[in-house]
Write a structure and sequence with these properties.
Order of helices and strands: EHEHEHEHEHEEHEEEE
Bound molecules: 5-O-phosphono-beta-D-ribofuranosylamine
Largest sheet: 7 strands, mixed
Oligomer: single chain
Low-confidence stretches: none
Strand order of the largest sheet: 3-2-1-4-5-6-7
Number of helices: 6
Number of strands: 11
CATH topology of the largest domain: Rossmann fold
Mean pLDDT: 96
Number of domains: 2
Helix content: 25-40%
Strand content: 25-35%
Structural class: alpha/beta
Distance between the termini: 40 Å
Shape: globular
Length: 222
């Protein structure tokens, strides 16, 4: 079967891009990266794309008079590359309703919190300030409202007493690198159905145990 063609949009480091590159290196993975686009010239993620031999473009938003003009250039490049799914991976531009509507159900994002908690930026600082015992990450379909939209998969990670924003971010990032390739796999396999505000993933069950924090062994058998 043809592999799902991904367009990955980045602005910086590109570690989530890297996780998709590594997943797609396996011949059995049902998706491939057709194009990487950065809005930031010199983004580290572009080096990762080059090292993997991927097609890449820099489309600098500062070169355009308006957000719609910038996004038209994005859509043109993605369409030319015959992209079937757009993956936002640390892409730091807000998107217009028009762009989101154009790519409706073909546009996903990863966010470093358990949405709908802690939308926006400076997530880990706010998580620590709130004193919650778990944080995590979310892969979701994109809708016009920022960091909203049907949730495909989440991973929970414990917050440790000694955490600072960097140590927590690193722990969450490891989970991000697990769940983004997984969500894309499920989409490519045709398992993911949007049902209103929710997503059903065919053939994938919820885990049988929960977690507790603080806890002697971290597990909560239910
Ligand atoms: C990740 O934490 C992602 O969840 C958020 O931006 C960060 C991007 O990191 N949207 P990277 O560029 O993928 O390393």
């Amino acid at each position: 079967m043809a592999r799902l063609r991904l367009g990955v949009l980045i602005s910086g480091r590109g570690s989530n891009l890297q996780s998709l590159i590594e997943a797609a290196a396996a011949p059995a993975y049902p998706a491939e990266i057709a194009l990487v686009i950065s809005n930031e010239p010199g983004a580290k993620g572009l080096e990762r794309a080059a090292a993997a031999g991927l097609a890449q473009r820099t489309i600098d938003h500062r070169d355009f008079d308006s957000r719609p003009a910038f996004e038209s250039a994005l859509t043109a490049a993605l369409t030319e590359a015959e992209v079937g799914l757009v993956c936002l991976a640390g892409f730091m531009r807000l998107l217009t309703d028009r762009f989101v509507a154009h790519w409706d159900r073909r546009l996903v994002n990863i966010h470093p919190s358990l949405l709908p908690a802690f939308k926006g930026i400076h997530v880990h600082e706010r998580v620590l300030a709130a004193g919650v015992r778990f944080s995590g990450c979310t892969v979701h379909y994109v809708v016009p409202e920022m960091d909203s939209g049907p949730i495909i998969v989440q991973a929970a990670v414990p917050v440790a007493g000694a955490d600072d924003a960097d140590s927590l971010a690193a722990r969450v990032l490891k989970a991000e690198h697990r769940i983004y390739p997984l969500a894309v796999r499920w989409i490519a396999e045709g398992r993911v159905r949007i049902e209103g505000e929710r997503v059903a993933v065919d053939g994938i069950a919820a885990p049988r145990s929960g977690l507790m924090n603080p806890s002697d062994d971290g597990r909560l058998v239910l």
